[in-house]
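stage 2 :: seqdesign
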């Protein structure tokens, strides 16, 4: 809370009292005083601040309950918002890199699954294979000796080079 008082003539604030979670700085009494109040950084008593048009935070933000963004609201990163993550109102979720850099996904094993998290689409393993799946069944896998294909391979042409250097073309 903030308590404001005046002298007997009502000409100036005689005291400013900062309550829990507020820091009072500047002169506390006298005519023409300059004073400011600020919210303490680690204030657990503040549970709601209403609607903010902007918020600047220095330091790390911890959101144990998650961060809720509406359809087409964007989480942006970079000085010019080069990386955007959002869900559109048409039902499409997007990770978009618009800067001059690259979008890197870093993992020793990267798995891509369906939205229900119960069907593999691809697996990329460091110093190992790349596996591609169709309807949950592995169809293509890179190996140390080449590529393994499960099922029928359809191609508009094939050139085979034998170890001796001879070339055979099949059509």
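stage 2 :: out
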């Amino acid at each position: 809370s903030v308590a404001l008082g005046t002298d007997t003539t009502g000409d100036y604030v005689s005291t400013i009292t900062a309550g829990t979670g507020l820091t009072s700085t500047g002169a506390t009494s006298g005519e023409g005083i300059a004073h400011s109040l600020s919210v303490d950084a680690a204030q657990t008593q503040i549970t709601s601040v209403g609607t903010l048009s902007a918020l600047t935070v220095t330091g790390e933000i911890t959101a144990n309950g998650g961060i809720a963004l509406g359809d087409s609201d964007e989480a942006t990163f970079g000085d010019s918002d080069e990386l955007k993550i959002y869900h559109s109102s048409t039902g499409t979720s997007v990770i978009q890199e618009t800067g001059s850099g690259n979008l890197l996904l870093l993992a020793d094993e990267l798995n891509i699954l369906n939205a229900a998290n119960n069907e593999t689409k691809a697996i990329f393993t460091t110093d190992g294979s790349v596996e591609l799946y169709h309807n949950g069944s592995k169809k293509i896998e890179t190996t140390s000796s080449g590529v393994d294909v499960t099922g029928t391979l359809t191609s508009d042409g094939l050139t085979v080079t034998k170890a001796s250097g001879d070339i055979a073309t099949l059509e």
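stage 3 :: structure notes
- The first strand starts at residue 2 and ends at 6.
- The radius of gyration is 31 Å.
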